[in-house]
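User: My instructor asked us to take a sequence, write out its structure as tokens, and then describe one feature of it. I'm not sure where to start. Here is the sequence I was given:
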Amino acid sequence: MMLLLLLAQEEGARTADVPNAMGAHTWFIILAVGAFLTWSISYSLQLRKEALARRKGREDLVRRKDELIDQIASLEEQKEAGAITDKKYKQELKDLRFQLTKVLEKLSPLPPGEGGRAKREPGEGRNAQT
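Assistant: Let's start with the prediction itself. The structure tokens for your sequence are:
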């Protein structure tokens, strides 16, 4: 054994050129992480853009609601002053209230599952026992 060590030292140390088996895997991992980070950033930007659009839409709805309330108040003043006929007043009031209802529905949507129906207490309804 000592003899082999001495012979190996006398010949001189040679380096063996072995190809890196993990080279392709390393680049694949780098590309996969880069793709994930790119997707994460684009998704985050998309969410921020949608939130900004919702906020702007809500501000527009609040402004529209205020305008409709002002129009209803103006209509009431015109009726009291006698500047508008009763039939026209009723029709315009009905139209403005309808528009206001639509705006208010958009401003405060019902939570999922309620769908505008009243909640029933246990024991109420068709199958209630009397």
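For the description part of your assignment, you could build on this observation: The longest helix spans residues 23-81. Try explaining in your own words what that tells you about the chain.
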